[in-house]
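Write out the 3D structure for:
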Amino acid sequence: MSIPQEIRDYNAAQSPSDKRICDALAKAIDRHLPGAESKIWHRHPVWFLDGNPIAGYSKLKDCIRLLFWSGQSFDEPELQKEGSFKAAEARFTSVKQIVPADLKRWLAKAAEIQWDYKNIVKRKGKLVRLK
């Protein structure tokens, strides 16, 4: 699947160093989540499976943050807890910090281990495990 123009535009708007990180993440996510829908969601690139957000990244003040919505369930010490639900993150300041084997493993877990964020509003903030 090709990366949508709106995500390529997002990446192009970053500094050269951050653009390299964003491009590497977009290519890896797109390759390892075949069939996922990708788009700009809440102003950031996000990949969805069956309407459920799985992985995405965003520019923070001093880094690019890679977020996995169900990442706390991956049992991956390199991913840090983010927020009050099940999300976990990795932060990058250089493309050299991205370890392809780690990213591939995280993305495989992202496809396999999912919490139902798509219906969190209907369930009044309660998350239910999908897979």
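The beta strands are 37-41, 44-49, 52-59, 64-68, 80-81, 88-92.
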